[in-house]
């Protein structure tokens, strides 16, 4: 399943000059980003910096005001493109899991395959079982989501996205709603995906995961990309003051009580509600 | 402010004694009121007028096989029409297309604001006038289904809309991100969840329709098309006795009371699920 061998000049995901506002609130202010096939990119930054909005613009759950998004050579922002067909190639995992609560785990995986891809019942069931085994939850096939822990629900959500055979996976703070002891299992599944060569964008606060798994780390603040590079550089030796400030707050939350740079906090504080509200729904 | 040390007994009654006394007094008043009514009523005449065993017996089996059957039939067909139409109007109300929303809003206001009786008369008189030569298919049954359905749709549309809006936004987003079209996502993911939420109020609507089906009276029906109310009233005037009314009433309760019980059970279960 390695995709690196087919690596062409065209990146798997290309974002050009992306702008997005919610009312008067400018959440994205000109984002450019290229992600190669099989690359794992972690997006970090303070809440309200526009990370989630950027991710939701990549599969057009949010419609950008300006700019272009290309995935696998298809321009999603083209009004004539079949967005439903394009989204089949892009899996998404949400902070709140968003499993279908009225369906069993297996039905959560088979319904989209059958309705969207038109797979037969048998084929969908086979793919579902395969992907449940992949995330280590084969024994929960007949359970309802409410009977699962948060970590298990999130792994089912990953399996549901994988069952559609995506070429790209988007993770929107996949572990932020989990109890700390459940985070590890979800990260392990994501690590496995990265190893298998999946192209991934991960919005996360898990610095150790970013450091270990990501090929690149993107630090966003105030709706722009502030720093973009290898994890060792961005997390290990940040060049920008805003990156350093964010990382030190993250590592030492007690410091967050101190007043930081007035400009940075002003931008970060305001859009928080909007972006989070949009992400959590 | 009485001191904490002040002996309560010294002031007269304790709190518990006061509560007992007050409750006891309420019981006495209530029982006395009921007893007074019962004593004042002329039971002999009531029994004569409402509980003639012979007349009641004479109503069977038609009151069940004809009248109750028709009532159920009218109710279910009205409910079916109301559900389909209500669903449509709810979706229009939530549509991004302005005129749809506007039309749905007007429809709901009109049909919720009018007495069901007027709509029955309207269907009986205005429709044949407006579309000469066209017959509502199904005769009386079709007319009743339409009239009851039009009324029910307005109430159900609001219930269904609330149910759809109660489904978390993330459900639609998850479905869209998997490649569902908006319509597919609505049908496969959102609506099934909405219906779980609105099952109790929808069942309540069924109870209301069951009673409203008595308005068929105003459409003019043949002997075979009579439902409980019409059947009871006809027999009452034939026999110059009100026993058939009582029997018809009991037949309504035989259905509405168990349904009400089912609704309360579902509501209790839904409440539990939320916790």
TrEMBL record, chain A:
EC number(s) given by UniProt: 7.4.2.1
Q: Sorted alphabetically, which SMART domains does this protein's record hold? A: AAA
Cited PROSITE patterns: ABC_TRANSPORTER_1 (PS00211), ABC_TRANSPORTER_2 (PS50893)
The EC class name is translocase
Q: Which residues form the signal peptide?
A: none
Instruction: Write out the ranges of the annotated region (Disordered).
Output: 253-281
What protein family is recorded?
A: Belongs to the ABC transporter superfamily.
Q: Where is the composition biased (Low complexity)?
A: 256-268
Q: Which Gene3D superfamilies match?
A: P-loop containing nucleotide triphosphate hydrolases
All copies of the ABC transporter domain together span: 13-247
Name any GO cellular component annotation. Answer: plasma membrane
Q: Which CDD domains match?
A: ABC_HisP_GlnQ
Kindly give the PANTHER family that the UniProt entry links to this protein: AMINO ACID IMPORT ATP-BINDING PROTEIN, GLUTAMATE_ASPARTATE IMPORT ATP-BINDING PROTEIN GLTL
Where do Basic and acidic residues bias regions lie?
270-281
- Topology in membrane: Peripheral membrane protein
* Name of the protein in question: ABC-type polar-amino-acid transporter
Q: What is the protein's species of origin?
A: Streptomyces doudnae
Task: Recite the UniProt keywords alphabetically.
Answer: Amino-acid transport, ATP-binding, Cell membrane, Membrane, Nucleotide-binding, Transport
Main site of residence? membrane
Give me the reactions it catalyses.
a polar amino acid(out) + ATP + H2O = a polar amino acid(in) + ADP + phosphate + H(+)
* Subcellular localization, as worded in the UniProt entry: Cell membrane
Automatic annotation (TrEMBL), chain B:
Would you tell me the protein name for this molecule? Amino acid ABC transporter permease
* Domain of life assignment: Bacteria
The record's CDD domains line, in alphabetical order, gives: TM_PBP2
- Where's the ABC transmembrane type-1 domain? 68-263
* Keyword Transmembrane belongs to the record: yes
The cellular location(s) given in this protein's UniProt record come to: Cell membrane
Keyword set for this entry? Amino-acid transport, Cell membrane, Membrane, Transmembrane, Transmembrane helix, Transport
Give the residue spans that cross the bilayer. Answer: 24-41, 72-92, 113-132, 243-263
Naturally occurring in which organism (per UniProt): Streptomyces doudnae
Q: Which GO terms describe its cellular component?
A: plasma membrane
> Which family, according to UniProt?
Belongs to the binding-protein-dependent transport system permease family. HisMQ subfamily.
């Amino acid at each position: 399943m390695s995709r690196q061998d087919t690596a062409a000049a065209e990146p798997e995901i290309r974002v050009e000059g992306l702008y997005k506002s919610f009312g008067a609130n400018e959440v994205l202010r000109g984002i450019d980003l290229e992600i190669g096939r099989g690359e794992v990119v972690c997006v970090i930054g303070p809440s309200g910096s526009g990370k989630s909005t950027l991710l939701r613009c990549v599969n057009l759950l949010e419609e950008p005001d300006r700019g272009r998004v290309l995935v696998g050579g298809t321009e999603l922002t083209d009004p004539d493109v079949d967005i439903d067909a394009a989204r089949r190639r892009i899996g998404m995992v949400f902070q709140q899991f968003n499993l279908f609560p009225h369906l069993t785990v297996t039905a959560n995986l088979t319904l989209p395959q059958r309705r969207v891809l038109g797979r037969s019942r048998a084929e969908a069931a086979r793919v579902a079982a395969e992907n449940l085994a992949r995330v280590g939850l084969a024994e929960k096939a007949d359970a309802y989501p409410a009977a699962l822990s948060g970590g298990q629900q999130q792994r089912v959500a990953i399996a549901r996205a994988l069952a559609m055979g995506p070429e790209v996976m988007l993770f929107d703070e996949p572990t932020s709603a989990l109890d700390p002891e459940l985070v590890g299992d979800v990260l392990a599944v994501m690590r496995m995906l990265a190893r298998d060569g999946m192209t991934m964008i991960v919005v996360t606060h898990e610095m150790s995961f970013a450091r270990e798994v990501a090929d690149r780390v993107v630090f966003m603040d105030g709706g722009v990309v502030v720093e973009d590079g290898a994890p060792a550089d961005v997390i290990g030796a940040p060049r920008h003051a805003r990156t350093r400030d964010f990382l030190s707050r993250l590592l030492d939350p007690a410091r967050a009580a101190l007043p930081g740079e007035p400009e940075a906090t002003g931008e970060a504080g305001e859009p928080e509600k909007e972006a989070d509200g949009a992400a959590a729904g | 402010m009485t001191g904490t040390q002040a002996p309560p007994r010294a002031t007269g009654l304790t709190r518990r004694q006061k509560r007992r006394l007050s409750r006891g007094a309420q019981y006495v008043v209530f029982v006395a009121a009921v007893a007074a009514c019962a004593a004042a009523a002329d039971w002999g005449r009531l029994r004569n007028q409402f509980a003639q065993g012979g007349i009641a017996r004479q109503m069977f089996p038609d009151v069940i096989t004809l009248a109750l059957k028709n009532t159920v039939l009218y109710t279910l067909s009205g409910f079916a029409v109301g559900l389909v139409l209500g669903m449509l109007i709810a979706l229009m109300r939530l549509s991004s297309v302005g005129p749809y929303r506007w039309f749905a809003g007007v429809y709901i206001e009109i049909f919720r604001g009018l007495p069901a009786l007027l709509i029955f008369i309207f269907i009986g008189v205005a429709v044949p006038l407006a579309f000469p030569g066209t017959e509502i298919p199904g005769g009386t049954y079709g007319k009743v289904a339409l009239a009851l359905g039009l009324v029910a749709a307005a109430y159900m549309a609001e219930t269904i809309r609330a149910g759809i809006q109660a489904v978390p936004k993330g459900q639609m987003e998850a479905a869209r991100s998997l490649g569902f079209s908006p319509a597919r996502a609505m049908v496969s993911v959102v609506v099934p969840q909405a219906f779980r939420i609105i099952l109790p109020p929808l069942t309540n609507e069924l109870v209301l329709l069951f009673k409203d089906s008595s308005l068929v009276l105003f459409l003019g029906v043949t002997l075979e098309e009579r439902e409980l109310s019409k059947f009871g009233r006809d027999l009452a005037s034939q026999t110059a006795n009100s026993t058939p009314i009582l029997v018809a009433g009991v037949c309504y309760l035989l259905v509405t009371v168990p349904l009400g019980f089912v609704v309360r059970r579902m509501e209790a279960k839904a409440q539990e699920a939320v916790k």
